[in-house]
Amino acid sequence: MRAGAVYFTEPAEPAQRRYEALRAYLVEEASADDVASCFGYSVPTVYQMASELRAGRAGFFLSSKPGPKGPRKAGAIRGRVLALRAKDRSVTEIAAALAAEGTPVSPQTVWSVLVAEGLERLPTRPRQARGPAPRTSPIKSRALGAWPVRATIACDHAGLFLLWPAMATLGLDTLVARARYPGTQALSSWQSMGSLLATKLLRRARVSHVEDLASDAGVGLALGLTAIPKATHLSTYSYRVRRECNEALLASLAGRMRELGMATGEAGFNLDFHSIRHHGSEVPLEKNYVPCRSQATRSVLTFFAQDHASTEMVYANADLTKAEAAREVIAFADYWQRVAGADPGLLVFDSRLTTYPVLGELTARGIHWLTLRQRGRSVLAALAALPDKAWKCVRIERAGRYRTPHLHDEMITIKGIERAVRQIAIRNIGRDEPTLLITNDQTSPAKDLFARYAERMLIENELDAYICGFHLDALSSGLPLNVDLDTTLTVVAGNLYRLFARELARYEHATPDRLYRHFIDATGTLHVAEDHVRVELGVRAYTPVLLEAGFQELDVPIPWWEGRKLRFSFPAR
């Protein structure tokens, strides 16, 4: 072979290796066995790659698309910019004039054209010669002294009121007061916490993104305020909140959900950690593994617990360190004991969530748990030596693949756990080596425990829904205590969306993102009367779902409105 041929015979990149393998199989007509052996694939993989190529789903080369050779927008507006500058217009005035003419550009683009022409800045002009007067100062947030009567208020976020019946059902203002959150001279604890919750429900990633809400009188009226507080107050307030307040609110919320028949805990809980990455530097944060980055980086470690039957989050904690992480499962068990008066049911979690000594504590306390066991060489060798009759083929009633796994159930001892535990080895589920489950549940059938652990992904799905729906990964601060308030509000917002969805046909399991897009992200008009507020929502494609759920007939007293009621109307097109 000539020099350089090794680039083709021993491809290093995965895409090139697939290309060379397919060329050998399809063009050089090598057998699938030879191709698999030469390039390190299995024979079924070779067949699958060939099938995807024939179906047009495989691509290896990118076509080049030359970009523009020069600044398109700046070149197109050059003549108009120079003409306006000749009239002594400023950069911002030129940009505003072009936008009014249908050519929106930034002041920076205008300035780049002027710099290229060698033009200098205009001399400083008196205030009256600089264009329109500055905007008036925003409305100060304070409690409504007297409610507007017979007022009509246009509201850009009127869909938010659809969540108010669920909030009233929970009695959230009472739960916040019971949790002893701090107040200020101007605003009560509920008014500050309700404002923070409103930004979360309306999917604002940070409290600094609250400007449009603060200028919407309708959002302020929803909380009994002239306007919701600005970012300065909300940020300052969040730093005053203690972990004890957040845990008390979560406990009260879980207790209220139990009264409503939700989040009972009877089917157990799914537990998981989630690392929220910090994108800055110079922060006193530990490095935790961040899955989206596939590496350990500075982040805030958070812990979540999810009720398995209803899939609702019932607990969150962001005030954690690596040294405390292993015992957080004990902290959750103590929390649920306070909420329900009994220890939690079956706890299901990943193998890295805690340690064997902590599992021993749970066992001694009588709490059932189910987790994975890491596969050691000696354990795998012992399983490989078992005869085929030691494995039992079972059928799992579920959708998807791997419904007939082979199970081997036995009692073993593990260092760090005093009592013997049950180990369930599973094979024939698409892995080269058996998967190992360990548990202290001695009575449940092995196949039920395997199916139960497979459903642990529900908490990962819910966390993903929280990331997409409530910007959970938009780290609110480099201080974990502040992040703890954000995760607490995320859990509250998730439960409110769940209560709202429970009334909507075919939306019972919809994600917050979908519910927001279909219903909450809506404008409307508020008609304020002496004893009620009627929210008139425009007719949209999904309005029939709200009508079917009976929102047009609702007449709900809102506690923080001093007994005034909330009503909805949906005028015909």
Would you write up a description of this structure?
- The protein is built from 23 helices and 15 strands.
- It is an alpha+beta fold.
- The chain has four domains: 6-54, no CATH class; 72-129, Orthogonal Bundle (Arc Repressor Mutant, subunit A), CATH 1.10.10; 165-342 and 465-510, no CATH class; 369-455, no CATH class.
- Strands 2, 3, 4, 5, 6, 7, 8, 9, 10 and 11 form a ten-stranded mixed sheet that branches. Strands 1-12-13-15-14 form a five-stranded mixed sheet.
- Helix 14 crosses helix 16 (328-340).
- The protein is globular.
- The protein starts with 5 loop residues before the first helix and ends with a strand.
Helix content: 25-40%
Supply Rg. 30 Å
The quaternary structure here is single chain
Largest sheet: 10 strands, mixed
Count of extended strands: 15
- In whole angstroms, how far apart are the ends? 76 Å
Portion of residues in beta strands equals 15-25%
- How many discrete structural domains? 4
**Helical region count?**
23
Annotation keywords:
single chain, 573 residues, alpha+beta, Arc Repressor Mutant, subunit A, 10-stranded mixed beta sheet, 5-stranded mixed beta sheet, 15 strands, 40% helix, 15% strand, globular
Question: What is the compact description of this entry?
Answer:
This protein is an alpha+beta fold and 573 residues long.
Give the SSE layout.
Blueprint: H1 6-9, H2 14-26, H3 32-39, H4 43-54, H5 72-85, H6 91-100, H7 107-116, E1 151-155, H8 164-170, H9 172-178, H10 189-201, H11 211-214, H12 217-222, H13 231-238, H14 243-259, E2 269-277, E3 287-290, E4 295-307, E5 313-317, H15 322-325, H16 328-340, E6 347-348, H17 356-365, E7 369-372, H18 377-384, E8 392-393, E9 406-414, E10 417-427, E11 435-439, H19 446-454, H20 457-470, H21 480-502, H22 512-520, E12 524-528, E13 532-537, H23 543-548, E14 556-557, E15 565-569
Parallel strand pairs: 2-6, 6-7, 13-15
Antiparallel strand pairs: 1-12, 2-4, 3-4, 4-5, 7-11, 8-9, 9-10, 10-11, 12-13, 14-15
